[in-house]
């Protein structure tokens, strides 16, 4: 018997991928874990008769000779079939988009960094010229949209977007898709969101705004969307919420929109995982209290290596500087000659002020051009240190609405960050 199966707490990407696998491996049977996400549960109860799928407890693992595992590379995340681990007589094929180290050692694999596993399977379906029914196209699109946040998560690849276009061409129904993608916001979710707004703490961790919440729940419902909404509302760079189930057991849902905080790395410390931007962990160590788990999350966040470019990597230098006595006429000459919009004013190697093109436009009288720059320069200069993160410089410039940010070490200006530098940084065009 050949089966196609996926991880417990099955999401739409997992479900779509096992159904797609049965198209690619004729004769194989789609086997769904008993525990699925609530929205997947609702989908299955409506479509039970239109998709060929059986539950893990309906299969005798002893009869399995070949197994297609999708959307996970870890034995412990499988339902029941982890008993086949280490069996040489069972062939294992892996389709996955998780790049972290897994313990499944397949005979053959298709593992690539994509927004969703279903993208990889749809590619193979297209290559073989197989036809999709509108139902299949819709299910695959839901899987793709769920894992990529409707193609907005930074893990989304151009191929994911092309796959969405293909699935729409094949008759994927957006009305149905939206219904299943949005149903995760019901009464229970509303309550959780309000509690997070009221009780969650905001931490400043190495310049990143991180929301941390602990919420008691009485039943397990789909909550990742609420965590994401909360993060957006409070404008946090990352959010971690610990859900404490009244019936015992906890789980953490994490979301991050900054490369410096990797949710996958952090939640691996709790036996979970996911992607850099999104993940979850089920806490099995019940000896830890919720307060201890919360403390451990904060400690882990503090340990996180500062990633990403530093101001020193993005700044321009050398910086054009003048003395406070320089005339405005000369300033204009320098700006035109060097094609720059800002000049730093220094005296005795010490920052005194800054003059930008905009200030020149304010000059009305001819004699003002002969006055020294110190009469017009801005003395309240916002500066940044070279070892600050490039993202902090970008943030500061937007906040203060300034186009020039001198980089200062001690009292000396060693570089300057301009809007051009920020644009190069944001679009990943920094020389590496
Ligand atoms: Mn997935």
What descriptors fit this protein?
432 residues, alpha/beta, 15 helices, inorganic pyrophosphatase (n-terminal core), Diaminopimelate Epimerase, Chain A, domain 1, elongated, 6-stranded parallel beta sheet, 6-stranded mixed beta sheet, 3 domains, binds manganese (II) ion, 17 strands, CBS-domain
Structure description:
By secondary structure, this protein is an alpha/beta fold. Helix 14 crosses helix 15. The protein is elongated. The strands form four sheets. Strands 3-2-1-4-5-6 form a six-stranded parallel sheet. Strands 7-8-9-10-12-11 form a six-stranded mixed sheet, with helices on both faces. The protein is built from 15 helices and 17 strands. The mean pLDDT is 90. The protein folds into three domains: 181 residues, Alpha-Beta Complex (inorganic pyrophosphatase (n-terminal core)); 117 residues, DHHA2 domain (Diaminopimelate Epimerase, Chain A, domain 1); 116 residues, CBS-domain, CATH 3.10.580.10. The structure holds manganese (II) ion. The site of manganese (II) ion (MN) has 6 residues, from loops.
Summarize model confidence as the mean pLDDT.
Answer: 90
Overall morphology: elongated
CATH class division of the largest domain: Alpha Beta
The structural class is alpha/beta
Measured on Cα atoms, how large is the radius of gyration? 28 Å
Integer tally of domains:
3
Describe the main β-sheet briefly: 6 strands, parallel
Question: In terms of per-residue confidence, which ranges show pLDDT below 50 for 5 or more consecutive residues?
Answer: none
